[in-house]
Write a sequence for this structure.
């Protein structure tokens, strides 16, 4: 083999090795974001399943102590929201069914903040015994603090009629 052919072969081998290392490095950098996205999806799934199960002790653990919320009745913080729900539950309110659809997620580059937005359907028995079912649009803002995800803000609005039919 000639010297120029050997150099060309060596150059090609270096290029292939470099491309391979770049591919592996790219996959490694994508890992933390994918892991975080999986954590956020799992968090959202558990959050809604616990709500549906009426497991209030676990449900309250999903929220940060400084959580704020905005919904039809206005703005609440955790100190307002928790007693509101506890009174509703004591008076007979019960979640009967929860399902969610069309989720969209965004995770910060630092992997310590995320937003989960989705449509959520709830069916509940109210204090007077009537059953109410409705679709809403929900956005959960999550921060990862001390190694665990928490809801720091939740926005809930009734879904427009066209969004309810999908």
């Amino acid at each position: 083999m000639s010297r120029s052919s050997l150099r060309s072969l060596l150059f090609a081998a270096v290029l292939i090795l470099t491309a391979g290392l770049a591919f592996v490095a790219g996959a490694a950098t994508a890992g933390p974001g994918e892991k975080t996205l999986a954590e956020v999806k799992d968090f959202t799934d558990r959050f809604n399943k616990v709500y549906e199960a009426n497991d209030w002790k676990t449900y309250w653990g999903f929220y940060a102590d400084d959580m704020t919320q905005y919904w039809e009745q206005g703005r609440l913080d955790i100190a307002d929201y928790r007693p509101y729900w506890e009174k509703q539950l004591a008076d007979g309110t019960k979640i009967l069914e929860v399902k969610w659809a069309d989720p969209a997620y965004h995770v910060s580059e630092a992997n310590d903040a995320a937003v989960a937005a989705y449509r959520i359907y709830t069916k509940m028995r109210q204090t007077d015994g009537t059953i109410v079912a409705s679709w809403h649009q929900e956005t959960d803002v999550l921060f990862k603090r001390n190694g665990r995800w928490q809801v720091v803000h939740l926005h809930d609005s009734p879904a427009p009629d066209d969004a309810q039919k999908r």
About this structure: The beta strands are 63-71, 74-77, 94-107, 113-125, 131-145, 148-158. The longest strand covers residues 131-145. Residues 3-52 form the longest helix (50 residues).
